[in-house]
Amino acid sequence: MTLSAAVASFCDRTFQVKLGEESAKGKDRRDNLLIDNRLFLSFGVHPKDVETFWKYRKATAQRLKRLMDMSRVVAFGEIGLDFTVAEAMWDRQVSTLEYLFEALGETIRQKKLPLVLHVREREEMPTRRKATWEIRTVLQRFFPAEYPIQLHYFTGRAVDVESWLEAFPQTHFSVSGAVRNSSAEKKAGVVAIPSDRLLLETDAPYAPVTGSFSVPHDIATTAKYVGQIRRTSETAILALAHENAKRFFGLPIGNRAFDRRESV
Fold first, then answer.
1. Which residues hold a divalent metal cation 1 (predicted)?
2. What is the pTM (predicted TM-score) of this model?
3. Where in the chain are the domains?
4. Known binding residues for a divalent metal cation
5. In CATH, which of 1.10.287.180, 3.40.50.300, 3.20.20.140, 3.30.470.10 is domain 6-259?
6. At 140, phi and psi to the nearest 5?
7. pLDDT tens digits, residue range 36-89?
8. Contact 78, 46 (CB under 8 A)
9. CA distance linking residue 176 with residue 229, whole number of Å
10. What are the pLDDT digits (tens) for 94-121?
11. Annotated binding-site ranges
12. Count of CA atoms in the C-beta half-sphere (13 A) of 187
């Protein structure tokens, strides 16, 4: 397998502070990140880090805006709602999304940056509040229905695929190798993803397919597991995900660089 491109999402505040410094060191860090021209970038705020974000929200939003000017930035995120944490944090997560979109929404839309969403429900203890419903409500205030969305680490059911596509038709579903050990219902969700909406990811180092952590080259193993579930070959899944990622992120690989403005 030959790697033609990869998109790395950075939502760690400490790294962003170092990378976004308006200093020689900050510039060096940004330059070093761009040495490999196959690497493309996305920056956001992880929903589990919202308490820290809120303390420094103005400075962080300014830093994110500055980072979005980097030549290889092709998306915004990950951002989202994670209702697996204490319920006391949920409102702060919603407020963080609203703050980010109020501060940066215009820039995101102008740059045509797809959104990388982290959406997690509290499955073991159902509540009346659903992360999916609440994040859609926020999104609908700031973005048109046709705006491109990547559901990072998608583990939903077939009905979830259908409902997302009904609300946001340009939703793409990013599947990791963790799907190998998922339930039959969630594997049916992988099967339900339209071919032109399927993306692959490793979520390195957090979603191991073998061993105790994952690495970027696990993408081939991820494709193998997804292929087994969708009853097709690893090669076919890799080719499909390659074309979808190229189009979705506007990656300048192959014969022609896709322009996101043509599809938004």
1. 78, 203
2. 0.90
3. 6-259
4. 78, 118, 152, 203
5. 3.20.20.140
6. -65, -20
7. 888 999 999 999 999 999 999 999 999 999 999 988 999 999 999 999 999 999
8. yes
9. 12
10. 999 999 999 999 999 999 999 999 999 9
11. 78, 118, 152, 203
12. 13
